[in-house]
Amino acid sequence: MKRSLENNIKAIYLLGFFTGFMVVVPVFVPLLQGYGLSMSEVMQTQALFALTIALCEVPSGYIADLWGRRNAILVGSGLNALGFFSLLWADSFVDFLIYEFILGIGFSLISGADLALLYDTEVYLQERGLRGGAGASKSLSRLIAVEAAASGAAGIAASLLLLWSMDSVVMLQAFTGFAPLLLAVLLVEAPRPPGAGDAADGHGENARRIVDLLLFGKPVVFWTAFAIAVFGLLAVYVFWIYQKYWEMQGIPLASFGYIWAAFALTVSLSARYSESLERLLGYRQVLVLIAVLPIAGLLGMAFAAGWLGVIFGFAIQVSRGLSMSLFYEALNRRVPGEFRATVNSLVSLGVRSTFIVTGPLLGMALDSHGVQPTLLGLAAIFAPLMGLVLVPLVLKIRREQAETSPQASAPSAAVL
């Protein structure tokens, strides 16, 4: 069992790498525009992806909690492989809608289940004094770093393949999409507490407990989930603006992949060293940094031109790596293991469900008003939103510290 679970950690890291190795993403907007799609239609494909995940996210997370995280990852990886393979014949708006629908189901099954399985594996090994990986906390940040590094590798691969043709990018994606499925077969289910993963209390009772945990349990859980949703939504927006922005700045298409790789490496490194930065600066200073960086990045992109505007995008990526690592670790540490996948899925649902409505509006704004007004609009909307979520989060953390330690008047390290 020990050897299987230790292999679990390595397999999840590799699975995360190949799940994040999506060579079509750095050039996805030009790819779809090459088939005659407008930015509005591009965002509609992403809205369908978000809608599919919104409908499947929580049920899939609950299924993973009940029937096993490995099973959910296995089925999700299989659907993703099918979706990527469908790119070989996709050449119309409807074809890309079908592609996004299949991926939406696949990623919803994996989302939350991989984090939960990794966390459960590390906790099980540590509780029994067995040698595991980096520990539950560092493993989550490392998984995020691995996925970001995979995105960077995909960006470099995309730029190199563009020396031949866009078809070669699609071809590689179609076949590397099967790698996560092969790795999912190697996973084993981590033992969980007795009663976890069954419906003995009834689905209704389980749902009540989850809602009670999020809304009426530990306040830090609610505000951390809220923070993940706010910062995650901004990340999704700029994710799809980047390529259009680079195009408007006159950046050559062949450079898109290299920029994407540099952006992904920035996320990877900031996620990897997020805990060390929190220990160095303290949680309040890190939260301020997480909020200031993306606003500075949006404003810099809006007013700067050419490569200087591209450079300002790195500020958003640093914030992304820090927020993903610290917020998700803080959430998973405070959530019971039997509902960890469900809660992770609920948080993702908050982002996806909002994007369903706002994604096409973002595309319309880009088509009708241009990139600069859209970036300024995002800065104006998200600056107060970040304050709305981070100020209460800091207050709740301070209260939690005061309740758990009589000497917690000063900020301690790694409280997030």
Automatic annotation (TrEMBL):
The molecular function GO annotations come to: transmembrane transporter activity
Give the CC-aspect GO terms.
Answer: membrane
Domain Major facilitator superfamily (MFS) profile: where? 4-398
Q: Where are the transmembrane segments?
A: 12-35, 47-64, 71-90, 96-119, 140-164, 170-188, 220-242, 254-274, 286-305, 375-395
Major site of localization recorded for this protein? membrane
Keyword annotations for this protein, in alphabetical order, are: Membrane, Transmembrane, Transmembrane helix
Q: Which SUPFAM superfamilies match?
A: MFS general substrate transporter
Does the keyword section mention Translocase?
no
> Which positions are tagged coiled coil?
none
List localization entries.
Membrane
Any Pfam family? MFS_1
How does the entry describe its membrane topology?
Multi-pass membrane protein
Name-wise, this protein is MFS transporter
Origin species, per record, is Seongchinamella unica
